[in-house]
Specification:
Blueprint lengths: L16 H40 L16 H6 L1 E3 L2 E4 L4 E3 L4 E3 L2 H12 L7 H9 L9 H16 L3 E6 L3 E8 L2 E3 L6
Antiparallel strand pairs: 1-2, 2-3, 3-4, 5-6, 6-7
Length: 188
Amino acid sequence: MGSDMTPVTLRPLRPDPTPLWEAAQRSCDRSQQLILECQALLGQHLAAVASLRAALAPVARPPAAQGRPSAGVDQLAEEVVLGPLTLLPLQRAIAGASVQVQLTPAEWQLLIALLMNRSSTVSRPGLAVAAWGAGFVGRHGEVEVYVSRLRRKLARSDAGVAIQTVRGQGYRLVVDEDDGAVGPPVAG
């Protein structure tokens, strides 16, 4: 019988709670950070809606002018009517004569950028910056893909709104109002 006995270290049955506590604290800190980020994004969204409403005020008609009963200020916070097109910012959707169409966030931002620049033609790079910010790094042809998707959804909404390609210059939004296409204001 040899003396090859190695000492055995006994471990406690419960692990040290410090790592678990630290992990829980990090999780709570991250949750608070995400809440603050969401609040900031919501603030940006509401600011964009207010900016859009202010920019479209000269051409937008209140819902009562479209044959709908007016619900006052609360309804204006929920929709903006531009000719035959109704924007539903809280739902990120557009509505035409009879159909409501949901837009993706990228499509919504693109539509807002076109509406904000309604009186002019916007170049592809200018449209990308206006829609997604100066830090946007897209793949080749990405603006064209989103313009194509948005065109299909505008056509499906049957609102008489289209995106026109101006060869060599970019894109512009064309809204049919009262049997006539209204694009940029005509001087004269």
